[in-house]
Automatic annotation (TrEMBL):
Major subcellular location class: endoplasmic reticulum
Protein name: SDR family oxidoreductase
Alphabetized SUPFAM superfamilies for the sequence: NAD(P)-binding Rossmann-fold domains (SSF51735)
Entries under Gene3D superfamilies matching the protein: NAD(P)-binding Rossmann-like Domain
PANTHER family registered for this protein in UniProt: RH59310P
Keywords carried by this UniProt record: Oxidoreductase
Subcellular location: Endoplasmic reticulum
GO molecular function annotations of the record: oxidoreductase activity
PROSITE patterns, per the entry: ADH_SHORT
Family classification: Belongs to the short-chain dehydrogenases/reductases (SDR) family.
UniProt xrefs under Pfam families: adh_short
Amino acid sequence: MPHSRARFGTRPRLCDRYGPAALVTGASDGIGRAFARRLAEAGFDLILVARREVALAELAHELRSHHAIDGQVLAADLSDGEQVRRVAKATAGHDVGLLIAAAGYGTSGPFIDGDLEAELSMIDVNCRALAQLTHTFARRFVERGRGGIVLMSSLVAFQGVPRAANYAATKAYVQTLAEGLHAELRSHGVDVLASAPGPVLSGFGQRAAMRITSGQTPDDVAVGSLHALGRRTTVRPGFLAKALETGLKPLPRPGRVLMMGKVMAGMTAR
């Protein structure tokens, strides 16, 4: 059955540029799920990666039914390096041209009061697994002469953030990696984008024990990021992310740390 081409602006050109397939991590919920829906709408075949196999299977069925694309499921816990390697191996025979590394989670509260294993696991998911998959797919994209990579940064990536110190540090890693890879890979036909949203109304806040009462939708983030891919190094998708960055930018770095600490204190008050 022929692919259903997108009813979404420039998305068919996106598929032509990077296609035919995309891999999306964190696809069972939130931002990753929104990316998967937009890419299916564009006609990409999809490989969906997350821990929850049932949720992935339901999403793959929905996308196949509505968009006549091929949707495959790889259930994996990306905090486990061996499972990340399994994902890389399982996708070796697919012509993947777009990597959306949306898997990740946060913690909140004073670092010394947190559970160390949870903090280390977050580093494994947000940084180690992201580096493993980015390394694998960047090599494949260079060999095929084209590709796109979206790495999920955050507004918190640009300064230290009290009460989310380790989470902010993981996002600073993602931001810096994306900036460096953008410069390294562009001559090989590979576009790299750091997407740095502000607060997002998704399941992230609940898992991170943060009260997020206003913010962007996951779809805002997906749409803004896909629009910026190949055009920019970093995007702050959505009005709120841009407004918050505008407010923080004039402050010296210690001032941004202080301001973000006050914001985070309000979001994590028990």
